[in-house]
Amino acid sequence: ATAASATDTRSPLPVLGRDVLVPLVTGGEVTYAALDYAASAPALQRVWDDVAAYAPYYGSVHRGAGYLSQLSTDLFENSRKDVAAFLGCRPDDQVVFTRSTTDSLNLLAAVLPHGTRVFVFETEHHASLLPWQQREGVEVGFLSAPRSPREAVETLDRALSAWRAEGPAEGGSAGPALVCVTGASNVTGELWPVRELTEVAHAHGARIVLDAAQLAPHHPVDIAASDVDWVAFSGHKLYAPFGAGVLAGRADWLREARPYLAGGGASRKVAVRVREGVGGVDVEWHTTEARHEAGSPNVIGAYAIASACKALTEAGFEGLVARERELIARVREGLTEVPEVRVLSLFGEDAPRVGVISFVVEGWNSSHFAAALSAEYGIGVRDGLFCAHPLVRTLLGGEPGDQGECGAPEAAPGERSLNAIRVSFGAGTPDEHVERFIGAVK
Ligand code: PMP
């Protein structure tokens, strides 16, 4: 605990959990070093304080006449405005509160107009890769793994040109198209060329959704400036671990589609017709965000996201990015000093990235390695396939193991790794955690 707090002054984003003691197999206890921010980042102290201050005033949202219900409703709707400001939304954009990035992308898949063609790189996280093919009447074009940002842009350009060349189907229009792309990879941490991909998409008349699950906690996401049509992200990766996420962007497809969830809150007027035992329900649905937010919303989750957004903005991304860059350089340098370590990269060693680094260690099974970091050093990293099987397959050059969706396949010690180890951090990470990690790997 002493070591951790001694370096706190260097961290511009105080987070919870730095004094948590965990047992070591070698005896004794050590403070937990959370280096798995890409899975879930610890809560910001500020988020926790804001939520705790609100907790006694908790009330139902959009449903109660009482004072605390009014207060909670205001808090919920103001959270929407704070998130819109954080994302740099255009005036007509909607900000829908969801459960997570996965939920946000499934919502977008559900509202796509019939006949939409979706384009997605095979390297995407499963949350970006899989929702589209669930929708009937939607076709998916999978794009092969690019080995540079420029190749990504060229690949998309070619695919969209070919789609346009197909021409209108049966006398109709070619239909709408949507590109789904990640801002920063959850496996390599590499930044994708969002602005260029957006230009290409729009030049071909396609729309684009940005999976900002890994980008938003590390870099500003400016919807208006980058011109993306939608952005999806999760609170629990943005230092607000209370089960909420966001889909923000263009209102038209959201307004025109059937509600994602049918129920109270989404409907404005409901009447049942019954004649001789045969009935139906006439429903007038809201055209605001409420259309897709049926049921009692997660006000704490929304408020926590808004609190984290404000904390990040107030801390200033310039300083946060600079601090994180130092940490990335230190981890890269430390890993380079270990000849058995191979860092995984799609775009090349020096590609710009966020604080997410995956690697394998020659002669080690990645799961055993990650388990040893935890048991012997109190360091929490992630091992496995990171819900991005095709990408990990490309990076490792082989078939990843088959032990569940995001799981870690077993291999005997000394066998070639079928999965990888991922260390991830943010501007809230103290130097001591990074130094302990490097020492442990060595
Ligand atoms: N996209 C990316 C790039 C991610 O890293 C993740 C989480 N690992 C997701 C989507 C899904 O986020 P969630 O689990 O919060 O839905």
Automatic annotation (TrEMBL):
Gene3D superfamilies: Aspartate Aminotransferase, domain 1, Type I PLP-dependent aspartate aminotransferase-like (Major domain). InterPro entries: Aminotrans_V_dom, PyrdxlP-dep_Trfase, PyrdxlP-dep_Trfase_major, PyrdxlP-dep_Trfase_small. Residues 35-437 form the Aminotransferase class V domain. This is Putative pyridoxalphosphate-dependent protein. Its cofactor is pyridoxal 5'-phosphate. It holds the Pfam family Aminotran_5. It comes from the Bacteria. Keywords: Pyridoxal phosphate.
